Amino acid sequence: MLWLTTKLVITAGILGWQYWRWRHRRMLELAARLPGPPTLPILGNALTFMLNPGEVLNKIDVFTEQYGEVFRFWLGPELNIVVNNPTDIRALLTSNKVNQKGPLYEYLVPMIGYGILSGGPIWRSHRKIVTPSYNKKSVENFSPIFNREAEQLARVICQKDPKKSFNVYKDIVRFTTQSVNQTLMGLSKEDSQNLYRVDEMLRVTQDIYGLIFEKMTKWWLHIPIVYWLLGKKKQQDYYVKLVEDLMGDIVGRRRKALEVSAPSEECMGIVDRYILSGDLTEEEIQKESMTLFTTSQEAAAKIASGVIMFLAHLPDWQDKVYKEMMEVVGPDGPVTSEQLKRLEHLDMVYKETLRYFSIAALIQRTVEEEITIKDGSITLPAGTSLVIPIHNVHRDPRYWEDPHKVMPERFLPENVKKRDPNAFVPFSLGPMDCLGRVYATALIKTIVVWVLRYAQLEPAGTLDNIKLNIAISVSCANGYNIKARPRNGRINELS
């Protein structure tokens, strides 16, 4: 009986495998035309990617050198096609045939549900509801809050002991959180300072990203019993409860406030828009609010910290940015969106930071219909997972001289003209691009202006061989460490 049962199981497995191959014969045919590493039966290249999360992108670099700028690899039955060519990246990301997130984003769902970041059938409608909160007019109306919080941050930084280094991110994230709470979340200053478990969220946000990225990149964590035995499920449950508690408090406060009055259209935050739309369940409102909360306050804090760290280590650029600021903005008063547009040197440092610390290390899309690239010579089959390794593209020596070096001059107009414009895609492209690019740019640049008004930044350590942490986004593994001292004329104001 045991022998018969074993034989039936083996036969069923073989038949199932053959049926899968017959059903996906078109995909297999097209995949066979692409270069890529040798595969094992059933596993594909899964064993090749048994790596630490940060090493996955290094492996993609190795494969790019071996197989070229378009290659395939298999993770079990899932076909992944990596595209590194900037022109092809634009064509694919702006195509209506590639308008769904890839399977990797499923691992975001326990934390944030289906929606704007994770995809699913409702991402378009959810995005459409909140888009007005991110347009230029709304961001201009948020400017007074950006200025107020940035000035408070600047005062905190320039009161540091000038002899001691510190991780500026820990200060910046508190003030980007306050800015996001009082704009996108729609809260008052008082409510923003008294949210349930918000400090806890600030401490563990990067750990949440780390857990998600670990599950994305370690196939054995996809096995529920393994995930549970390693304590990952318990960790995930703690994070889910934390999200529910914090977002429940935010949404609850806004529901009570809306019973009294609603803000004007130009100043309305995303939580109010979701509540007033009537199209989302309570859980959906909380999960989408969490998505937009963390992708705003945490991402903005990391990029602002990167800009400030680079300025501290590049004194010539700090002088250029400061001099330009004094000419355009002056030593006091609110910073306007029009003034920010004229700060060209700051913009170059900002873009170099976005290049160096990619907001998304890689993105994955599902190919819903066959699509061709390379003048029709390569066809990506339907059902393929398209992988765009933005971190690798931003460090491709074909487009970036000394790609591991920090060089804001890359973005001088004469240097930009020499480079394929699609080699720099910090906010992605197409209908699923970053919703908050205008918002984040205004917030980050306002922070930098105020900090430089108050503080002279100085280096702590070196920019050589920066150790990177890759977990969804790219960040500085050892912190954004600098020193700071008050600028002349500010000492008396702080006493």
Automatic annotation (TrEMBL):
> By its UniProt entry, which SUPFAM superfamilies does this protein fall under?
Cytochrome P450 (SSF48264)
Cofactor list: heme
Q: Looking at the Swiss-Prot or TrEMBL record, what is one Pfam family this protein matches?
A: p450
PANTHER family documented for this protein = BIFUNCTIONAL ALBAFLAVENONE MONOOXYGENASE_TERPENE SYNTHASE, CYTOCHROME P450 FAMILY 4
Question: What name does the UniProt record give this protein?
Answer: Cytochrome P450 4C1
Keyword Heme recorded: yes
Tell me its family: Belongs to the cytochrome P450 family.
Extract the GO molecular function terms from the UniProt entry: heme binding; iron ion binding; monooxygenase activity; oxidoreductase activity, acting on paired donors, with incorporation or reduction of molecular oxygen
Give the keywords, sorted: Heme, Iron, Metal-binding, Monooxygenase, Oxidoreductase
Instruction: State the superkingdom.
Output: Eukaryota
- InterPro entries, alphabetically? Cyt_P450, Cyt_P450_E_grp-I, Cyt_P450_sf, Cytochrome_P450_Monoox
> Per UniProt, where does heme bind?
C434
